[in-house]
Hints:
This protein has 57 residues and is mainly α. The chain has 1 helix and no strands. The longest helix is centred in the first third of the chain and has 24 residues, at 7-30.
Amino acid sequence: MAxxxxxxxxxxxxxxxxxxAAAERYLEANIDSLGIELRRIHRAxxxxxxxxxxxxx
Length: 57
């Protein structure tokens, strides 16, 4: 088992894929109510999650 510096680091490494999957499902289900303005974008493509950060456990 790998040594982790903190419990938050352990959770981040252990459940990283779960965080991404949950965030993607939320984004897809709630994109219209998030208040994201796409007026200045010439042609909007798919939404994308760029980073997941575990701050508190």
